[in-house]
Write a structure and sequence with these properties.
31 strands; four-stranded antiparallel β-sheet; 374 residues; 5% helix; mainly beta
């Protein structure tokens, strides 16, 4: 398949999963939607939270057993994708394809923390909510960023932030540091926004392509992958572009920075290691399948997953393979893997097993969680 055809196919697949499939819910059973989403994983302490299809699952990470799910009974009018956010106040906050934001009790999953779900957004919540102190920041596919009081669920800014009268969709979570929000958009820009007021501080020039995942902050630089086949480093103070690294294909996911190196992949299946300071390539290698997720990284390895089910472990310094063979899982792997206690926890699409565990030393894999009654 040519690069252009592959890109068109991949974008059509993602658009179908994120935007088209939810419209079919009114005519499908809840279980049918399991093939039209992919798991968003968040780990907090000893609990793994998974947003997938028609439910949010809380799973004991030691045993793999289900603690609770929301809603308790499948509702075909509800569906979730965005990874949940967990607050210090005992809330699991998650957005849905029905444009609403829910605050669930961390122990029981009860939807009783707010008087009602926040329903101010005009389109689905694809990016994860971000908890910033007492507030929750919620990006929406309607192109607006909402700030919600974590205790009440009420809006706290006079109006949500939007870049223009016709803003580009927001598919990713923002990041916040020292009172400034950094927000990436499908409209080819990154924005800096004052947290207290919701007012814009700066915006970048057009970066030439859509940005579908969150910015990464490292040493005063904002790093974003773009559909213009590049990784771009932006000065966090003024929004100026400091360097651009050209890739072979679209960069769909966020880079992960470890010890001054940005690790990421593109949709042609090439994995990269780039020096954050100057944008110089340290290594690259080809892996089987589209890389649509951010890797997981620790001092021992960089762990990439692909839509063909491949899990590859690379030496952070050289890029050389760590395992004798790649792990090959059933199902497409489009979710960011999560490291926990010597394991990679990986969400998979359209399988009975929706979360796999892969041993980071050997690459041995097994099913970690398969929901009952789905």
């Amino acid at each position: 398949m040519s690069k252009n055809l592959r890109k068109k196919f991949y974008l059509a697949t993602i658009l179908g999963l994120l935007l088209i499939a939810p419209l079919l819910l009114t005519g499908c059973s809840g279980s049918a939607f399991a093939a039209s989403s992919w798991p968003g994983l968040t780990i907090d302490g000893s609990t793994l939270y998974v947003a997938y299809g028609t439910a949010i699952y809380a799973i004991n990470v030691e045993s793999g057993s289900e603690l609770w799910r929301f809603p308790a009974e499948a509702d075909r009018l509800l569906s979730f994708y965005a990874p949940p956010a967990v607050s210090d106040g005992g809330l699991v906050i998650v957005g849905g394809y029905n444009n609403a934001v829910y605050a669930l009790d961390v122990d029981t999953g009860a939807d009783s923390a707010w008087p009602a779900a926040f329903e101010g957004a005009q389109d689905r919540i694809i990016g994860s909510p971000l908890i910033a102190g007492d507030w929750v920041l919620v990006p929406s596919a309607d192109g607006r960023l909402y700030a919600i009081d974590a205790d009440s669920g009420e809006a706290v800014w006079d109006k949500p932030y939007q870049a223009s009268e016709d803003p580009g969709p927001l598919w990713s979570s923002p990041i916040v540091t020292e009172g400034t929000i950094y927000l990436a958009s499908l409209d080819h820009h990154v924005y800096a926004i004052d947290l207290s007021s919701g007012e814009e501080i700066w915006r970048t020039v057009d970066l030439g392509g859509a940005i579908s995942d969150s910015p990464t902050l490292s040493d005063g630089l904002i790093l974003v992958g773009t559909f213009s086949e590049s990784l771009v480093a932006i000065d966090s103070e003024d929004g100026a572009v400091r360097w651009t690294f050209d890739t072979a294909d679209w960069v769909w996911s966020s880079p992960v920075v470890f010890d001054g190196v940005a690790y990421f992949g593109d949709t042609s299946g090439i994995a990269y290691a780039v020096d954050v300071e100057n944008g110089n390539e340290l290594w690259q290698k080809s892996i089987d399948g589209v890389i649509g997720a951010s890797p997981a990284v620790d001092e021992n390895g960089v762990y990439f997953v692909t839509e063909t089910g491949v899990v590859h472990a690379a030496n952070p310094t050289t890029g050389g393979a760590i395992w004798p063979n790649d792990a090959n899982l059933e199902g497409e792997l489009l979710s960011d893997p999560v490291l926990y206690d010597g394991q990679l926890l990986i969400g998979a699409i359209a399988q009975e097993c929706i979360v796999y565990a892969v041993d980071i030393d050997s690459g041995r894999a097994g099913c970690f969680f398969s929901p009952e009654g789905q």
